[in-house]
Amino acid sequence: MIINRVIPETGETEYTSGDAEYIREVRNRLLAGTDYLALSDVTMSDAMKTYRQKLRDIPQQSSFPTTFIMPLKPE
Fold first, then answer.
1. What Å distances lie between residue 25 and 20, 37, 60, CA to CA?
2. Between the CA atoms of 57, 5, 28 and 75, what dihedral angle is there, to the nearest 10 degrees?
3. How far apart are alpha carbons 27 and 70 in whole angstroms?
4. Residues 16-25: tens digit of each pLDDT
5. How many CB atoms lie within 10 A of CB 52?
6. Between the CA atoms of 38, 32, 49 and 41, what dihedral angle is there, to the nearest 10 degrees?
7. What is the pTM of this model?
8. What sign does the CA torsion over 58, 53, 71, 8 have?
């Protein structure tokens, strides 16, 4: 993946790739790293819910897999 630019308004990063399988693997690892927040005894913040949804939506971005935006993980 090649970094094209960081979007100043959101801090998200735009990448160029072309390897849809690799991008999905990265996305799946990032989602798995936050799965513990989706347990029934944890209250997930709205920012984290939005982040996880943006990760799931990466393959639906109009220019995927050539260019795509990777969301910024909230604190």
1. 9, 20, 15
2. -90
3. 9
4. 998 999 999 9
5. 19
6. 10
7. 0.87
8. positive
